[in-house]
């Protein structure tokens, strides 16, 4: 029915959840924050690097499930400061073809886990 997807190439969950859950052909990826899975440390101080790390964590989970960013149909981006939207969007955009990019919302929030500046979740379909 559902298959749990976890990889050591993305940060371990920091709560009672998994990195992703595959149901039939649909992959639901938990929000990824800019934690370097090799060190367990937060990437901080540069929103572009933070966004890139979050996207690389998502890429690792997609890879583990046998998918790529081409399979992504929906993305949710949560940011601590909407003034950083253009920099986040610039990095995010390098992972997708603009013509086939997924649906998306971007929401400014009061706080995120570990008080990071960006968290991104995705839904992908084989």
Sheet with the most strands: spatial strand order:
1-2-3-6-4-5
Which class best fits the helix and strand makeup? alpha+beta
Largest sheet: 6 strands, mixed
Give the beta-strand count.
6
Give the % helix: 10-25%
Q: What is the CA–CA distance across the termini?
A: 16 Å
CATH class: Alpha Beta
Structural shape: globular
Percent in strands: 25-35%
**Corresponding CATH architecture:** 2-Layer Sandwich
Radius of gyration from CA coordinates: 14 Å
The ordered H/E elements are: EEEHEHEE
- The low-confidence runs, each spanning 5 or more residues with pLDDT under 50, are none
Number of alpha- plus pi-helical segments: 2
Q: Could you state the CATH homologous superfamily?
A: RutC-like
From the 3D structure, determine the CATH topology: 60s Ribosomal Protein L30, Chain: A
Please provide a written account of the structure.
Helix 1 packs parallel to helix 2 (about 85-95). The model has no long low-confidence stretch (mean pLDDT about 95). Strand 4, helix 2 and strand 5 (about 105-110) form a beta-alpha-beta unit. This protein has helices at about 45-65, 85-95, and strands at about 1-5, 20-25, 25-30, 70-80, 105-110, 120-125. It has one domain (about 1-125): 2-Layer Sandwich (60s Ribosomal Protein L30, Chain: A), CATH 3.30.1330. The protein has 2 helices and 6 strands. Helices cover about 20% and strands about 30% of the residues. It has a 6-stranded mixed β-sheet with strand order 1-2-3-6-4-5, with helices on one face. The protein has about 130 residues and is α+β, with helices and mostly antiparallel strands. It holds the Pfam family Ribonuc_L-PSP. InterPro entries: RidA, RutC-like_sf, YjgF/YER057c/UK114.
């Amino acid at each position: 029915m559902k298959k749990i997807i976890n990889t050591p190439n993305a940060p371990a969950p920091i709560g009672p959840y998994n990195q992703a859950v595959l149901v039939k052909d649909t992959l639901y990826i938990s929000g990824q924050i800019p934690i370097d899975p090799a060190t367990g440390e937060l990437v901080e101080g540069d929103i572009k690097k933070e966004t890139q790390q979050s996207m690389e964590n998502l890429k690792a989970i997609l890879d583990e499930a046998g998918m790529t960013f081409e399979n992504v149909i929906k993305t949710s981006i949560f940011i601590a400061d909407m003034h950083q939207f253009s920099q986040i969007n610039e990095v995010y955009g390098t992972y997708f073809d603009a013509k086939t990019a997924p649906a998306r919302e971007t929401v400014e929030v009061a706080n995120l886990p570990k008080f990071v500046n960006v968290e991104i979740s995705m839904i992908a379909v084989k």
